[in-house]
Amino acid sequence: MSKSLDAVTIPKWGIEMTQGTIVAWHKAEGDTVKAGEEIVDIETDKIVNSFEARSSGTLVRILAEVGEELPVGYLIGVIASEVVTDDAIEAFIAAQIRDEDTVSEEETIPVSPEVHIAKTDRASATRIAPALRRKLERAGIDPEQIEGSGPEGRITKEDVDRAIG
Questions:
Q1: CA dist., res. 140 & res. 155, Å (int)
Q2: Structural domain includes residue 71
Q3: Of 63, 90, 81, the residue nearest 6 (C-alpha)
Q4: C-alpha span between 56 and 36 (Å, rounded)
Q5: Residue 110: its pLDDT value, please?
Q6: Looking at the domain assignment, is residue 12 inside a domain?
Q7: Which pTM was predicted?
Q8: Per-residue pLDDT averaged across 100-112, rounded?
Q9: DSSP assigned state of 123
Q10: Is residue 12 a contact partner of residue 72, using CB atoms and an 8 Å limit?
Q11: Average pLDDT in the 107-119 region?
């Protein structure tokens, strides 16, 4: 893992918490964040909490939209403490996928910021962020018809923009 990149994930705030819903982002991609600063509000089945950044830097990726309900541990953003390339960010995100491969076969896990599916269904899934999937669907384009240019065939924002434009 890169020391300059920090994963923002759905935290586990209680013993019974299994998922959280994004309520509001206090920062946008490209915004500077400070360690301890509130960056996103996440609702559990009991309360809404503000998630504080663990590190200072720039919020370089937001991978979950307001209203999305996601499992604990799911990658929702990336903070960079120094200037990094898009390729480095994509490689960091792809590494998150590999780290999750140690989960047992029976469990449903967050495979990546693009898709969470049963681990046994992974080979047939199109890897795309939910926000990008919705953008394609609104444009009447099937994500299965797009060849992703990101790591492991992941469909990137650039791929979606190119398909729509």
A1: 16
A2: yes
A3: 81
A4: 8
A5: 42
A6: yes
A7: 0.60
A8: 40
A9: G
A10: yes
A11: 39
- Number of domains composing the chain: 1
- Please check whether residue 130 is in contact with residue 68, taking contact to mean a CB–CB distance below 8 angstroms: yes
Q: Which residue has the higher pLDDT, 55 or 115?
A: 55
User: What backbone phi and psi angles, to 5 degrees, belong to 65?
Assistant: -95, 160
Average pLDDT of the chain, as a whole number: 78
Lowest mean pLDDT among 88-92, 117-121, 157-161: 117-121
Q: Are 23 and 66 in contact (CB under 8 A)?
A: yes
Helix H or strand E encompassing 93: helix 86-100
Please name every residue paired with 128 in a beta bridge, in sequence order, or none if there are none: 155
Query: Is residue 94 situated within a structural domain?
Result: yes
DSSP string, 104-117: -TTSEEE--SS-EE
The sign one gets for the Cα dihedral 20, 24, 29, 30 is: negative
Whether 53 is in a domain gets the answer yes
What pLDDT, in 10s, does the model give residues 22-75? Answer: 999 999 999 999 999 999 999 988 788 999 999 999 999 998 888 888 888 888
The CATH number given to whatever domain includes residue 27 is 2.40.50.100
Distance of CA 29 to the CA centre of its chain: 13
Give the domain extent around 69: 5-103
Q: Which residue reads 């307001």 in tokens?
A: 66
